[in-house]
Specification:
This protein is α+β, with helices and mostly antiparallel strands and 225 residues long. The chain is built from 5 helices and 15 strands. It has 2 domains: 115 residues, Enolase-like, domain 1; 79 residues, 3-Layer(aba) Sandwich (Peroxisomal Thiolase, Chain A, domain 1).
């Protein structure tokens, strides 16, 4: 659990687990344990990690964890995400989102959490949560939706999105979005409406389909530099 990308770190982080130390048996949130890659607040000769304390699941609670692995089978994941949510009916009372590896220590997406609390899980509210994470960069990051052109392609959606993203990187051009004239109210994402030339170094491809299949992958352009 020393790495910011470790699966268990993120599972416990978004559940709000606590850690007890031998020195006074203090309890603290797991996220406060990490100080950097391979480092923690524990004193090597004086303190010991002795347990985790997970809150009991209550009515309206739910959680999920997903990770994207490297094709070679290396144990360290490319991306982890853990979510814990408490709902009252359709309203999100509380939510915790952990993402990794997003830095030297496990990362809580607090801006997105704050944006979603007290709201329902609707497209508008999800767009606002994305804006909360991107901040002022929301208007700068081009968004190219492919579903409006390809419709629902089921399990093939992820592959088609990756092909489109790689081709855009290769050509250095982001095509205009088609059949995407109307936006959800409150969506201020920078959807590309006119084709544009652009050197693309990174692409975040997010794919969703019926049945709960969801995947996200970050693609980086190869460089000899």
């Amino acid at each position: 659990m020393q790495s910011g990308s470790h699966q268990l770190a993120h599972e416990f982080l978004h559940l709000g687990a606590e850690i007890a130390s031998l020195e006074g048996r203090q309890c603290l949130p797991v996220e406060e344990l990490f100080t950097g890659p391979g480092k923690s607040i524990l004193k090597p000769r004086n303190e010991l990690l002795i347990g985790f304390y997970l809150p009991a699941i209550q009515k309206g609670d739910g959680s999920a964890f997903r990770r994207v692995m490297r094709p070679q089978g290396v144990a360290i994941a490319i991306m982890n995400m853990g979510i814990w949510i408490k709902r009252l009916g359709e309203v999100i009372q509380d939510i915790r989102i952990s993402i990794g590896p997003a830095g030297p220590i496990p990362f809580r997406a607090r801006a997105a959490e704050a944006s979603l609390r007290g709201k329902t899980m609707q497209k508008k509210n999800i767009s606002e949560a994305i804006e909360a994470v991107l901040g002022r960069r929301t208007a700068d990051v081009p968004v190219w939706p492919t579903k409006s052109m390809l419709s629902n392609t089921g399990a093939a959606a992820g592959a088609l999105d990756v092909i489109a993203a790689v081709y855009a990187m290769k050509e250095g051009r982001i095509p205009a979005a088609k059949n995407c004239d109307r936006r959800t109210d409150g969506c201020n994402l920078n959807i590309v409406t006119q084709g544009m030339q652009k050197e693309i170094r990174y692409v975040l491809s997010c794919s969703y389909t019926y049945g709960g299949q969801t995947a996200a992958i970050i693609i980086k352009r190869f460089s000899n530099d």
